[in-house]
Amino acid sequence: METTQKDSNNKRMFLSFFKIGAFTLGGGYAMLPIMEREVVDKYNWLSREEFMNIMVVAQSTPGLFAINMASHIGTKYNGVKGGIICTLGVALPSIICILLIAMFFQLFKENIYVQKIFLGIRPAVVALIAAPCFSMARSAHITLPTAWIPIVCCLLIVPFGFSPILVILIAAVGGFIYGKIKSHSKS
User: Fold this and answer.
1) Nearest CA to 85 among 141, 144, 25, 8?
2) What pLDDT tens digit does each residue of the chain (187 aa) get?
3) CA distances from residue 43 to 7, 9, 23, 51, 64 in whole angstroms, order as listed
4) Residues with Cβ < 8 Å from 50, sequence gap 6 or more?
5) From CA 61, how far away is CA 37, in angstroms rounded?
6) SS3 of residue 6 by DSSP
7) Most CB atoms within 10 A, among 45, 62, 97, 112?
8) What gap in Å lies between CA 104 and CA 98, rounded to an integer?
9) Distance of CA 59 to the CA centre of its chain
């Protein structure tokens, strides 16, 4: 009986991540709202805090963000087998799509309708990437008084060309010092 339950969970995980991979344009960050809804809200495979922790680890792990998220979520919920199942589920739609596009794109690349479709998709992808930023800010307890931190980090990286790694290290040290000062002032 336990084997059929695990098989059912594995099938559900694969189909869920296949759906996430198939119906999300814009890459890993655009997948976050759907992934969170499936993993946290719908199936309760992870708590919201676990999801946020996995997101932080996936961002700092080399490789594609969506693949990292899927493999970490699957591994956390169902071990190595779960990691493999979720990774295959999220990657397979892209592989199929790329193969189909490679086969037929040369026939349609000059078509004005195809060009207009791609022009229409671009702004939607920007919105899909921006939406999780607000959700992550809420989950990370970023408030108006602390909103300056991510803004300064973005400004250091984009217009001033600071290394993102350097910004992360400075933020980590600053957070550590702030935490020490805050805990010291409470005692």
Assistant:
1) 8
2) 456 666 678 899 999 999 999 987 777 778 888 899 999 999 999 999 999 999 989 988 888 888 999 999 999 988 999 999 999 999 999 899 888 888 887 777 788 888 888 888 888 877 777 777 777 787 778 888 888 888 888 899 888 988 988 988 888 888 889 888 888 887 7
3) 15, 10, 18, 13, 24
4) 76
5) 23
6) helix
7) 45
8) 10
9) 8
Tokens coding 2: 């336990």
- Please give the full DSSP string across 17-54, using - where no structure is assigned: HHHHHHS--SSHHHHHHHHHIIIIIIS-SS-HHHHHHH
In the chain, count of helices (H) and strands (E)?
A: 7, 0
pTM for the structure as a whole? 0.61
* CA distances to 171, 175, 184, 185 from 178, in Å: 10, 5, 10, 11
For residues 151, 155, 157 and 160, what is the CA-based torsion angle, rounded to 10 degrees?
-160
Contacts of 39 (CB under 8 A, 6+ apart): 16, 45, 46, 51, 73
Answer yes or no: are the C-beta atoms of 87 and 67 closer than 8 Å: yes
- What backbone phi and psi angles, to 5 degrees, belong to 57? -65, -40
What Cα–Cα distance (Å) separates residue 55 from each residue in 8, 28, 82, 142? 25, 10, 17, 16
- Structure tokens belonging to residue 144: 């108006």
